[in-house]
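Continuing the batch. This is chain 6 of the set; chains 1 through 5 are on the previous pages. Same settings as before, nothing changed between runs. Recording input and output for traceability.
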Amino acid sequence: MAQYRLEVQTIQRSAGRSAVAAAAYRSGDRLIDERLAMEFDFGSKGDIEFAAVMAPADAPAAFSDRQTLWNAAEAAEKRRDAVPARELLVSLPHELDFAQRRALVQAFVAEQLVARGMIADVAMHRPGREGDERNFHAHILVTTRSVTPEGFGKKPAEWWSPKALREWRSAWAEIQNEHLRRHLGPDAPQVSHLSLAEQGSDREPGVHLGPTASALERKDVASERGQQNRDTEAHNAKRKELRTDFQATADRLVREAPVIAVPVAKLTTEAEQMRSRMIAERDRWAAERAALTLPKIDSVRALERELLQPARTGVAAAKLRLRQTEQRVTQVRQRRLALVQWIRNPARMIWAKHAELNAIARARAAMKRAEVAVQVRATWIASPAGQAYVASRRGPQLERAGDVARQRRTLERKIKRIDKRIEGATRAYNDLRVAQALGQKELQVPSHLPDETRFMREVGGPARAALMRYPAPARAQAVERLNRSMGQTIGRTFIPGR
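Output for chain 6:
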């Protein structure tokens, strides 16, 4: 069935990336990067099934050319850590044919990207020969600056907000579902941009393999991520099997239990207690979730600054000493020139001049050593050993953050599920209260109900059926009496026939 995927990444100079190179690779084109004076030729790539540049109406006509567009985007950036482009990677439903997938991508790009003022370079890829045959996907490179007929302008802040990303994710799910229903009918598979936790599912999510792990798996070499996905699938299958077995056993116990008459007042009390326990459990989980705070994770840049800080402090101190030495030499020289005995003694003047020059030379040498120390440390940080050290510093933080995130997702799934149960319990409880207000003495229910869900279902059903035997005006009057007596409001949706 169709799968949902929308990932966003930046094409950033500080990571050694080029928007021109990215566009050439994704579109299978041959482009020249004018900033780097390098050619990127990917014309031999065979998995490209469609590539096109989509731009707003007021964009320069020259920007319809891919090489012109991305060289202009690079030229508009001055910083070493600039982001000339971003990429949206989306999975396309394999159930649709090429023309339908193309129409889907173009509709999304036109509505969500070009309409906001971005220029999008779209490249649709078909599955690789050795990969998953359903892996149709599209790479969408978008510009990061507003565009006018004269060229690129500023970077709109709203393009970078988390809200924009949420809107993209939601819109991609909606438009994909719309196209699936349009071409496959009302029973077409549907996707959701919500996480499993937000959907209330207890299924554990898998991880994206990525190119390295995928290549290993194709060669029948078990990768760490591949094994993690296999373990997750096994856990999900076992969880589903246990849940099915429990449900079958519970249903059998309910079917085999004799039906007995139970006073409505007793059932109402039990329903109220059961609903209160559910609410208390839900509140406890919500408190646990609120108490889980993500630990601080040092960014790579922050750690690099921390490692460079001692050397940079040394440079600042050396510059200060040099400036103080030069000021001191200037002041002493001016005072000395005012003394007659120094002027009349050339030897002493020459000695003093040498002393001054030596002091300044020592200060400049100290500053040069400090600057070299910064360069040496920066080179080490950029080396594999330095990057490994930075990664080792961040590793424990990332692991702790991952543990907290998993705990929060688990609690969110539990809360989502129990919210649905509380909703059903509230409906059954209100039906019982109305039935009791109408004078219903007892209900026929199974003598053994193994869990709360079945209690609410097996009691709520007879309660609603009993209510339906009373005229609608009588039900409405009972609701009004309960509202007046208890200071609460029973929603009309709880009362059949309203």
